[in-house]
């Protein structure tokens, strides 16, 4: 590592966003779309990260892509839609989190930068994180959040001065609430000198523990909203949090104090009920006697048939829900369809999946793209979240 920088540090105005992972645990939601741009309330997921960056004066983001890189680029483009400049560093093969950051080096300006895991939803105060980084003067400062079970995360211990005393990725045997790496941090460019080029290298295993040992890594503890959207359940919950403004987003601004957005091109029959919080996208049609919400997101062109019920559910663009169907706690990916009278409780239907009439699917069942279930073919009951079974 080189000697301390001569000029006083300032807050970062650029960011690296790590989006090269496969997101396998989020299938079938991510069977046909990369996780970072999976729609969340009709916007690509990473746009929430970009919004937060722009709010805190960051003007440039470099996406570190690999898996399905073109699909991410096609969605995000040059970033102008999101108020900052976006560049891309594409890997031929996965380099690991540290390798992926180092691969962005030529696309970064001089100076320090934020790094984001591309699957984190948070309204963390980036200016406060950056201010602490500048004040402490370490090589890196990590945003830390408490979780009840840290075993899926990077477990972090701090000393009395806010210095990271240990960093342990995916500890096998820790019990109880602890601080973890929330997947957002500030790094000085000198850190890249610790990363061997052209081979798989993890920042969590290869860099953070060494920086901690050298006393040059700090933690910024924030008890505000934080969630990673790694599973269908947390994907669904992220929607609820956005609808309820538990996390501050641009969507909350659009919805206002009524917690309701109904696009002006949507057609809601006067005999239908829409119960907030709810987001009803463009050209949605809701028939008489239907009840939508609370906690429903209907993407562009969704059709809800007569007498159907849709609550605590995300139906992406093009989904069709038949008459008297009951859909609850479910995710319906683009163009999926549900036949008349079918009940879905806690189901995930992949893109274009068609479930015929008179079926009952429940209990976290995931149906992958390419599947068509005939009418009256599956009857699955399960007591879910305390609801009564049949
Ligand atoms: N470009 C690139 N190349 N990106 C990668 C690679 C790679 O080889 N490997 C992972 N990523 C990206 C993923 O797309 C994701 O956005 C981010 O890096 C983190 O990888 P995950 O696979 O999601 O890791 P994790 O969730 O198990 O653990 C990480 O996040 C936790 C917080 O959610 C770690 O950073 C933990 O320490 C942390 O607590
Ligand atoms: Mg993750």
Class from secondary-structure proportions: alpha/beta
Q: Domains counted in the coordinates: how many?
A: 2
CATH architecture of the largest domain: Alpha-Beta Complex
For the biggest sheet, the summary is: 7 strands, mixed
The CATH superfamily of the largest domain bears the name Spore Coat Polysaccharide Biosynthesis Protein SpsA, Chain A
Please give the order of strands in the largest beta sheet. Answer: 5-4-1-6-11-8-12
Please give a structural write-up:
The chain is α/β, with parallel strands linked by helices and 390 residues long. The protein has 2 domains: 14-234, Spore Coat Polysaccharide Biosynthesis Protein SpsA, Chain A (Alpha-Beta Complex); 259-380, Hexapeptide repeat proteins (UDP N-Acetylglucosamine Acyltransferase, domain 1), CATH 2.160.10.10. 17% of the residues lie in helices and 29% in strands. The protein is built from 7 helices and 33 strands. Strands 5-4-1-6-11-8-12 form a 7-stranded mixed sheet, with helices on both faces. A 7-stranded parallel sheet has the order 14-17-20-23-26-29-32, with helices on one face. It has a 7-stranded parallel sheet with strand order 15-18-21-24-27-30-33, with no helix packed on it. It starts with 13 loop residues before the first strand and ends in a 17-residue tail after the last strand. The model is unreliable at 384-390 (pLDDT under 50). The site of guanosine-5'-diphosphate-alpha-D-mannose has 25 residues, from helix 3 and strand 11.
């Amino acid at each position: 590592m080189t000697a301390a920088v001569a000029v006083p540090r300032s807050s970062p105005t650029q960011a690296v966003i790590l989006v090269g992972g496969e997101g396998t645990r989020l299938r079938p939601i991510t069977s046909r779309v990369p996780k970072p741009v999976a729609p969340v309330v009709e916007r690509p997921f990473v746009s929430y990260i970009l919004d937060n960056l722009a709010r805190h004066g960051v003007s440039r983001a470099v996406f570190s892509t690999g898996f399905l890189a073109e699909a991410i680029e096609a969605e995000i483009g040059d970033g102008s839609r999101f108020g900052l400049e976006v560049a891309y560093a594409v890997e031929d093969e996965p380099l690991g989190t540290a390798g992926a950051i180092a691969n962005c080096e030529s696309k970064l300006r001089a100076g320090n930068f934020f790094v984001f895991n591309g699957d984190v939803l948070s309204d963390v105060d980036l200016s406060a994180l950056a201010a602490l980084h500048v004040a402490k003067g370490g090589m890196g400062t990590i945003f830390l959040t408490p979780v009840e079970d840290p075993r899926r995360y990077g477990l972090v211990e701090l000393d009395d001065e806010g210095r990271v005393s240990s960093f342990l990725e995916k500890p096998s045997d820790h019990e109880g609430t602890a601080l973890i790496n929330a997947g957002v941090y500030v790094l000085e460019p000198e850190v890249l000198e610790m990363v061997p080029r052209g081979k798989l290298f993890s920042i969590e295993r290869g860099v953070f523990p060494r920086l901690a040992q050298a006393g040059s890594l700090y933690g910024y503890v924030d008890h505000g909203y934080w969630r990673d959207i790694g599973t269908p359940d947390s994907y669904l919950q992220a929607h609820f949090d956005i609808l309820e403004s538990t996390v501050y987003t641009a969507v909350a601004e659009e919805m206002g104090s009524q917690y309701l957005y109904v696009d002006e091109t949507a057609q809601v029959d006067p005999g239908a009920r829409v119960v907030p919080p709810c987001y009803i996208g463009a050209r949605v049609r809701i028939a008489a006697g239907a009840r939508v919400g609370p906690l429903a997101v209907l993407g562009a062109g969704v059709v809800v048939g007569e007498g159907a019920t849709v609550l605590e559910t995300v139906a992406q663009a093009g989904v069709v829900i038949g008459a008297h169907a009951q859909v609850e706690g479910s995710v319906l990916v683009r163009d999926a369809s549900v036949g008349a009278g079918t009940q879905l409780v806690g189901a995930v239907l992949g893109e274009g999946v068609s479930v015929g009439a008179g079926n009952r699917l429940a209990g976290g069942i995931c149906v992958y793209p390419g599947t068509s279930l005939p009418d009256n073919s599956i009857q699955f009951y399960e007591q879910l979240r305390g609801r009564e079974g049949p």
